[in-house]
Amino acid sequence: AVFMQRAQANSLAALGKYSGDPNADKAASQSLFVANHAY
After folding, report:
1. Section 35-39 average pLDDT
2. Would you kindly state one Gene Ontology biological process term found in this protein's UniProt entry (predicted)?
């Protein structure tokens, strides 16, 4: 079920029509950004 929701969101994003999903789980909405991260 989650895969289909993400596939639909990806489809909308590819068309420029995605504006976010208020029903997305918390893990999917967390940022992976790490400030001052050195590679």
Report:
1. 93
2. glycolytic process
Rounded-to-integer distance, Cα 22 and Cα 3, Å: 16
Contact 37, 31 (CB under 8 A): no
As a whole number of Å, the end-to-end CA separation of the chain is 35
pTM: 0.54
- Full DSSP string of the chain: -HHHHHHHHHHHHHTT-----TT--HHHHS----TT---
The pair of three-digit structure tokens given for residue 12, joined into one six-digit string: 């909308």
